[in-house]
Amino acid sequence: MNMRLIGVRTIDELTPDLVDASALHAHANVTPADNLYNTTYQPLSLTQFKTKL
User: Out of the domains of life, which is the source (predicted)?
Assistant: First the structure.
C-alpha cells in the first residue's frame, strides 16, 4: 500500500533513487512512559528474617 505512494507496485520496481534513507541515523525507539503504572506501583516490601546461629 505505501509503495503505491511512490509509484511502484512490487519490490522489484524499487530503485535507489526512490528511497530516502537519509534520516535513518536519527531514528530513536522511544517508549512513552506509563504514567498509570508509575503513579500506582508500590514495591513489595519483604520481611527480614532473623537467623539463628
Answer: Eukaryota
Which pTM does this prediction carry?
0.37
Contact in structure between 28 and 40 (CB atoms under 8 Å) = no
13-26: pLDDT as tens digits: 989 888 888 888 88
- Tell me the C-alpha distance between 1 and 11, whole Å: 12
SS3 50: coil
Return the residue matching grid coordinates 526512490: 18
Among residues 49, 52, 33, the alpha carbon closest in space to that of 41 is found at 33
Residue 18's contacts (CB-CB under 8 Å, 6 or more residues apart) are: 6, 7, 8
